[in-house]
């Protein structure tokens, strides 16, 4: 998955609380509130479920997804599972988005972490039958404490296909600002697609969390 060029239709529902696994002990959490979703670290056992979400037509419409076997994905998830989300994090980490009912509804990732510049990117996929319920927006909001507090990032970036208005709304509701259009950024099914570039700064996120306006 590249950036956040994924469909994630969501309503502006307040705030989700991340569920931190043992490897994330000490990671920051969102303020206590009725949780629309929780996040748990993705494990090799989640591979088949994630592959099913990847195969959905609306997901593939906006993502340049490469062929990936269950064995390959399980190996990646096993490698990522050992990474602690703290100020030394490098690389990618994935979480499963779990609804309040306990049902998995999608996944979200913190990826391309660059320690020198304190940068990272967010990407997410919500299963087709779970869209329109606020899960994507809640998942992005739940991820931000891990990115800004636990991983000590200063800036989180995302991209969304210009035509993917649902994913763009998710990012905007989570506080990201559009910084421009990257023309013909990615090739999807042989067609070069324009993408909107988004970013959220830690300073803006903290101001919003305390009621200040940037």
Strand order of the largest sheet: 1-2-3-4-5-7-6
Report the mean per-residue pLDDT as an integer: 85
Helix content: 25-40%
- Count of distinct strands: 7
Class of the domain at 22-153 in CATH?
Alpha Beta
> What composes the largest sheet?
7 strands, mixed
Q: Which of globular, elongated, flat, extended, rod-shaped describes the shape?
A: globular
Beta content comes to: 25-35%
* Rg of Cα set: 16 Å
Regions with pLDDT < 50 over 5+ consecutive residues?
1-33
Cα separation of the termini = 31 Å
CATH topology of the domain at 22-153: Aminopeptidase
Write up this protein.
The chain has a domain at 22-153: Gcn5-related N-acetyltransferase (GNAT) (Aminopeptidase). The chain has six helices and seven strands. It has helices at residues 47-54, 57-61, 70-81, 135-150, 165-173, 202-209; strands at residues 37-41, 91-99, 104-114, 119-126, 155-161, 177-188, 191-201. A seven-stranded mixed sheet has the order 1-2-3-4-5-7-6, sandwiched between helices. The longest helix is centred in the middle third of the chain and has 16 residues, at 135-150. Mean pLDDT is 85; it is low at 1-33.
Offer a quick outline of the entry.
By secondary structure, this protein is α+β, with helices and mostly antiparallel strands.
Q: What layout of secondary structure does this protein have?
A:
Blueprint: E1 37-41, H1 47-54, H2 57-61, H3 70-81, E2 91-99, E3 104-114, E4 119-126, H4 135-150, E5 155-161, H5 165-173, E6 177-188, E7 191-201, H6 202-209
Parallel strand pairs: 4-5
Antiparallel strand pairs: 1-2, 2-3, 3-4, 5-7, 6-7
